[in-house]
Design a protein that fits this description.
The protein is mainly alpha-helical and 508 residues long. It is built from 22 helices and seven strands. The chain has three domains: 125 residues, 3-Layer(aba) Sandwich (Rossmann fold), CATH 3.40.50; 176 residues, Serine Threonine Protein Phosphatase 5, Tetratricopeptide repeat, CATH 1.25.40.80; 168 residues, Orthogonal Bundle (DNA Cyclobutane Dipyrimidine Photolyase, subunit A, domain 3), CATH 1.10.579. Bound molecules: flavin-adenine dinucleotide, ligand DLZ and iron/sulfur cluster. Flavin-adenine dinucleotide (FAD) binds next to helix 10, helix 12, helix 15 and helix 17.
Length: 508
């Protein structure tokens, strides 16, 4: 039966399940650039360039295999701007009798797909996404009957299933987790690696022009675009990371430094999420470095945990809990997102650095996302939906299956502890310990109150005070609340007053 195989912009891998049994003589692959996907949230300009350019390069790769690709460009006449519209047109154009597609990464697209059979009038086969280690059913089985869904236990199961970093049924080195060794601050004289930029080729340059013409009002700079847009270049980026950065990845995973946007991080999330790299090959590259004694166990375990553990876990959680997951607001946070999240115009240096990196690179590393912009949003009580919208708009790697649990659950504790056992709330002392940001800031991380006091300090106490009802009984918050109870009541009221003045000024 002549089959139309739809490949979405984040399914750019030759081994994707929708292409499994393709017959190049008979079937047609549909790839469509559609306005709706660039604007359902107005993505960072670099993300749109990355996706569209990677799609165009992938289509060329398929064509080299003599596969017929029906590629619809954004500017093509009659482009309906939606997946459904483009499928309808392509079915007619190519006289296909059925559709095959791989399940999408976002709930909203899944809802769309569920309607296709009825509205297109042909059979639509939706296949499992075979890029992940754990199927959605497998995750649901793991979650079944568990009181809490902590990542650590899921990760151990994945270690056992893959046999990675195992000696028999015991973890290699007799520890499952080297997290406590992943928290070093960066020595001043530590040499930092130069990270590879990939110069835009003519295809990318053409897409840059298209994006700047059509979506130039979206957040973000285009001039720094240096992402890989082909599998070949993404593999090169992975290779560079493993040989140059991985040995230090573990030690400095939580460190932050002014003007240094990438440090020893992988910079592979956009490639993984788009399909240019597969999680298995990324983990195997790290495991091989361990085997060849080119990287220590703590670094390799730390890196593998992010992919085999966190990445799989957040995907499982997203599909297990949607659509209700996005609706909760456990801490009843209501404040609108302040303007400086878009402009980076703020006197808080840590926030400025993180937002500038986000604007320039469509990237900030995990600790910046969690402990700077995320921590501020948590402490200031920003409305979860607004914060989630921001995270989905501003990063090259942002797809809802991975963005939402990280923001809603991990950063904002809006799920009331489904994902994290306690809120990741921290004062200026944490940021001061893990970065050099405070040295160049007008505020002082050591002062609790007064004009020079770091806002993260009084916001931290204000957060604890205003959330006593939902949080005080959490055993993991015991120490924080004992410290609060020891604080002089007059000081508590001064803190509340200063925090509220600061928060009121944000709203203005
Ligand atoms: P590295 O630090 O080098 O880590 C290696 C890989 O591990 C990453 O490429 C990523 O694939 C995986 N990984 C690490 N941490 C996580 C995690 N918590 N969840 C899932 N995968 C993880 N990641 C996204 O891919 N897309 C998002 O939209 C996204 N939004 C986030 C929002 C918030 C509020 C937070 C706190 C985290 C978010 N993350 C997201 C997770 C993480 O910050 C990024 O995956 C990471 O910063 C990507 O950079 P890297 O490739 O240099 O990662
Ligand atoms: C993110 C994105 C963008 C900007 N544009 C397209 C596009 O034009 N065509 C396409 O097939 N996919 C695009 N994507 C990726 C989709 O948004 C993604 O496949 C869905 O969100 C499902 O995960
Ligand atoms: Fe951020 Fe406070 Fe440090 Fe300034 S002093 S950089 S606001 S933590």
């Amino acid at each position: 039966m002549k089959t139309l195989r739809l490949v979405l912009g984040d399914q750019l891998n030759r081994s994707i399940s929708s292409l499994d049994d393709i017959d190049p003589k008979r079937d047609v692959v549909l790839m469509a650039e559609v306005h709706d996907e660039a604007t359902y949230v107005p993505h960072h300009q670099q993300k749109i360039v990355l996706v569209l350019s990677a799609m165009r390069h992938f289509a060329e790769l398929l064509a080299c295999e003599s596969i017929t690709v029906d590629y619809v460009r954004m500017s093509d006449e009659g482009n309906t701007g939606s997946f459904t519209g483009e499928l309808e047109r392509a079915l007619k154009r190519n006289q296909c009798e059925r559709v095959v597609v791989t399940e999408p990464g976002e709930w909203r697209v899944d809802q769309m797909m569920q309607k296709w059979e009825a509205c297109l009038g042909v059979p639509v086969e939706i296949r499992q996404d075979n890029r992940f280690f754990c199927s959605l059913d497998g995750f649901a089985d793991w979650a079944e009957g568990r009181k809490n869904l902590r990542m650590e236990f899921f990760y151990r199961q994945m270690r056992r299933e893959t046999g990675w970093l195992m000696e028999g049924d015991k973890p290699l080195g007799e520890r499952w987790n080297y997290d406590s060794e992943n928290r070093k601050s960066l020595p001043k004289d530590k040499a930092l690696p130069r990270r590879n930029r990939f110069e835009p080729d003519p295809i990318t340059q053409e897409v840059i022009k298209l994006v700047s013409d059509r979506f130039g009002d979206h957040f973000g700079e285009l001039e720094h675009f240096g992402w890989a847009v082909t599998r070949e270049d993404a593999l090169q980026a992975l290779d560079d990371f493993v040989s140059v950065c991985l040995p230090d990845f573990g030690n400095y995973q939580d460190a932050m430094k002014s003007g240094e946007d990438f440090l020893f991080h992988g910079l592979v999330s956009p490639y993984l999420n788009l399909g240019l790299l597969l999680p298995r090959e990324v983990c195997e590259a790290a495991l091989q470095a361990l085997e060849h004694e080119e990287a220590p166990l703590a670094a390799v375990e730390g890196f593998v945990r992010q992919i085999l553990g966190w990445r799989e876990y957040v995907r499982g959680l997203y599909w297990l809990k949607m659509p209700d997951y996005a609706q909760s607001n456990y801490l009843n946070a209501k404040r609108p997102l302040p303007e400086f999240y878009w402009t980076a115009r703020t006197e808080l240096n840590c926030l400025r650095q993180t937002i500038e990196s986000t604007r320039d690179n469509a990237y900030a590393h995990h600790i910046q996302r969690l402990m700077v912009t995320g921590n501020f949003a948590l402490l200031a009580g920003l409305e979860p939906a607004e914060v989630e919208d921001w995270y989905l708009r501003v990063y090259a790697d942002a797809f809802e299956w991975v963005e939402l649990p990280n923001t809603h659950g991990m950063a904002l504790y809006a799920d009331g502890g489904v994902m994290a056992s306690k809120p990741y709330a921290a004062s200026g002392a944490y940021i001061n310990r893990m970065s050099d940001y405070c040295a160049d800031c007008k505020f002082d991380p050591k002062q609790k109150l007064g004009e020079k006091a770091c806002p993260f300090n009084y916001l931290y106490w204000h957060f604890l005070i205003r959330n006593q009802d939902p949080l005080k009984s959490n055993p993991r918050m015991g120490l924080a609340y004992r410290n609060l109870d020891r604080m002089d009541p007059d000081q508590q009221s001064d803190i509340v007053e200063q925090a509220e003045r600061f928060l009121d000024a944000l709203d203005e």
